[in-house]
Amino acid sequence: MSIKENIETILAIETSCDETAAAVVRGGNTIISNVVASQIESHRRFGGVVPEVASRQHTENITIVVDEALEKGEVTLGQMDAVAVTKGPGLVGALLVGVNAAKAIAFSHDLPLIGVHHIAGHIEAARFQQEWKYPALALVVSGGHTELVLLREEGVYEVIGETRDDAAGEAYDKVARALGLPYPGGPQIDRLAQKGQTNIDFPIAWLEEGSYDFSFSGLKSAVMNTLHNANQRGENLLPEDVAASFQRSVVQVLVEKTKRAAVEYNVQQVVVVGGVAANQGLRKAMEDQFKNENMDLVIPPLSLCTDNAAMIGAAAHILWKKKEFATMALNAYADLDLG
Amino acid sequence: MATFHFIVTSPEETLRFAKKIGEKLQSGDIITLDGGLGAGKTHFTKGIAAALHVTKTVNSPTFTIIKEYDGRLPLYHMDVYRIESEEADELGLEEYFEGKGVCVIEWAEKITEFLPKERLEIYIERHPTEERHFYLHAHGTRWKKLCEELEEDENISN
């Protein structure tokens, strides 16, 4: 394939949590290759994300994944215009594997280095679907994050709401565990919920008026209490009904708060990203809610919603345009503010 | 090892209780939190964080494993729920244990052998109501003294 000279091509690397990923992205919106060394099989064994396994595996995977991204894209490092990497937030040990690999490649091939915020990456995955229209609103929902982010202009992220306790994906995971479902719990509950009745009244934490924050801890406790009480009384609750009722509570608050913020800030576009964006119940509710609104709803496909490096390449495009390059002193940051 | 028992009746009271402990904390302190799902471990940590003057929202570290916050002292909030003990030594936890901050470790019973000897172990017993029973196991004289001070504080039921 030929590389257009006026559009930059970026090699992007992501190792913030449990995925080693590399991608080649052109112009922030075209995926040349996108490789994720999914570690989900080894995690399933342990019933969760096992960080030191991840850390060790990142080290083992990183060269293979970068080579494969180049090979699949039929490109060479010599054809790259920059190297981008997730600098945080995440696990420092995991992040450092990617940061050091990116530095080594940038140094040896004399390429500019770009440090990207993981959540900016998730949000910018929307670029692969369509061009941004600002102001825009992003709902980031995953195992580790539940945030509402306002984008008044390109590359400027304002967190207007976040979870005060559990992330939405985490609540799914913990409820799945209480129901004895295998890891990962989210897709299992989503599937069960399609077959169940929403006949259990679980609470929804709306929090104080006007707040765009979320809270799922109370809902989690309510599910635990309901299961416990039913067990004590010898009642048999149908897991699909628990799943459907739980999912209704989660989806309702996510959709409603997103809608309210979208209207308040008069946005042109709403994007839903992060692993939980794959949830069928959430997708459908979002589509229903926004179909009659004068704003675009963008939900990238699952492969671009879970952790991947293409999204890092998309976010790096903005920094490339601004020539905001990192130095060789680039570090990994466990805790990093968006914006 | 001395054990102390406290009962709180609401989430607000848990926060007040945690704040009282948080106000007494020093650099290098280690507190472990155990108790089932929904016991209130993260909620309790919010009280510690408030006493350490952490201004950012403290939320669950289950997926990210470790979250760091700036305050009067740095707060290292960990959740080792997903960690197998034989692998815990590769996580670099010692760096946090020996750091300048306060470590609060949820589900610490999974990695007991890696924990420093001097620590405050807290077990939160969940009740179907909002009531919670706190069992504080003081490992070391400093923690014993701290727990005795808590007991003398008449605003905490026990």
From TrEMBL, chain A:
Cofactor(s) demanded: Fe(2+)
Occurrences of domain Gcp-like (ranges): 30-313
A GO term for molecular function: tRNA N(6)-L-threonylcarbamoyladenine synthase activity
UniProt-annotated binding residues for substrate: V140, V141, S142, G143, G144, D173, G186, D190, N279
Superkingdom assignment: Bacteria
Residues binding Fe cation, per UniProt: H118, H122, D307
Pfam families, per the entry: TsaD (PF00814)
Enzyme Commission designation: 2.3.1.234
Alphabetical list of InterPro entries matching this protein: ATPase_NBD, Gcp-like_dom, KAE1/TsaD, Peptidase_M22_CS, TsaD
Sorted UniProt keywords: Acyltransferase, Cytoplasm, Iron, Metal-binding, Transferase, tRNA processing
Localisation: Cytoplasm
Catalytic reactions of this protein: L-threonylcarbamoyladenylate + adenosine(37) in tRNA = N(6)-L-threonylcarbamoyladenosine(37) in tRNA + AMP + H(+)
Cofactor comment text: Binds 1 Fe(2+) ion per subunit.
Primary role: Required for the formation of a threonylcarbamoyl group on adenosine at position 37 (t(6)A37) in tRNAs that read codons beginning with adenine. Is involved in the transfer of the threonylcarbamoyl moiety of threonylcarbamoyl-AMP (TC-AMP) to the N6 group of A37, together with TsaE and TsaB. TsaD likely plays a direct catalytic role in this reaction.
Annotated family: Belongs to the KAE1 / TsaD family.
Protein name as it appears in the record: tRNA N6-adenosine threonylcarbamoyltransferase
Species in which this protein is naturally found: Aliibacillus thermotolerans
Gene: tsaD
Automatic annotation (TrEMBL), chain B:
Taxonomy, superkingdom: Bacteria
Location, primary (coarse class): cytoplasm
Location within or outside the cell: Cytoplasm
Annotated keywords: ATP-binding, Cytoplasm, Magnesium, Metal-binding, Nucleotide-binding, tRNA processing
Alphabetical list of SUPFAM superfamilies matching this protein: P-loop containing nucleoside triphosphate hydrolases (SSF52540)
Pfam families: TsaE (PF02367)
Family of this protein: Belongs to the TsaE family.
PANTHER family in UniProt: TRNA THREONYLCARBAMOYLADENOSINE BIOSYNTHESIS PROTEIN TSAE
Name assigned to this protein: tRNA threonylcarbamoyladenosine biosynthesis protein TsaE
Phylogenetic classification of the source organism: Bacteria, Bacillati, Bacillota, Bacilli, Bacillales
